Amino acid sequence: MRVMKWSMIALAVSAGTTQFAMASAQDDAKGLVEDSTFSINTRALYFSRDTRNEPGNGYSFVNGKRKSRAEETGLGFNALFHSGFTTGTIGVGFDAIGLLGVKLDSGKGRAGTGLFPNDADGRAQDDYSKGGGAIKFRLSDTVLKIGDQYTTAPVFASDDSRLLPELPQGISITSNEIKGLKLEAGHFTASTAQAQTYHDSLGLKETNYVGGVYAFTPELTGSLYYAKTEDYWRKYYANVNWTHAIDKDQSLAFDFNIYDTKSDGAALQRAEKDFRLPLDQQTKLDNRAYSLQGAYTYGAHTFTLAYQKVNGDGDYG
User: Fold this and answer.
1) Do 192 and 198 touch, CB atoms closer than 8 A?
2) 92 near 26, Cβ under 8 Å?
3) How much is the pTM?
4) For residue 109, what is the DSSP state?
């Protein structure tokens, strides 16, 4: 009787494992070339900043010099190649990124928008390029990636607000093993700035993050994330999103976000140096940001009402 009992348990575990493997993304792998994709995204960007009437008479900096006006136009190219994965229990693949920025309009007196690198005389370079690659491994529904890669985690996302995006270098892991649950973590030790081409031009020492998104129901999801960037900040993030389909043409959605950012390491020392804060008040860079958004969608039209509040003296989040 006991032998039969254990045999039934083993059979159940075996069946469950087989079902788990058959449902995984790696089981459907077709190969490096067969599942590969290639795309080129282009962007034309005009950027103008005029702070001649602002206190301090200047916001932009070029080669350490304050400037009160910056105005430039550029064209950016972002080439992305994603290979598929080799077949087998552990799939192997690679990704490649190529970036090119071209100056369309600028001038020595108007440089400093952050679209282009600047020469020693303060003029924007005519063009600049950078690139990178990463190797990736997949086991079941879990992917490990090592190398240059864009990040989208809410506590550590590649900044794409200029002509070309930031390009961090490090290790990331993303898992979708449990239905409705996405878990991810990352360890990054360098990042190429938006308008620079040399390795770790952003001056990143180390960033570690962990978090996940869980779908409680088809309509309700929640997220929790944590990140620590050495000598800069510790960041906490939470999100709740609810979407309800009224009928085939109408839907309602509500989205709540909160970021809690705290200075860390050398950032506290900079706060004391810059703002002459006493030791027990070195939180000048800290802040907490909330946002609540409601949206009504009818067909192709969406009407949105949102509110955001930031508490604290920090100017980053």
Assistant:
1) yes
2) no
3) 0.83
4) T
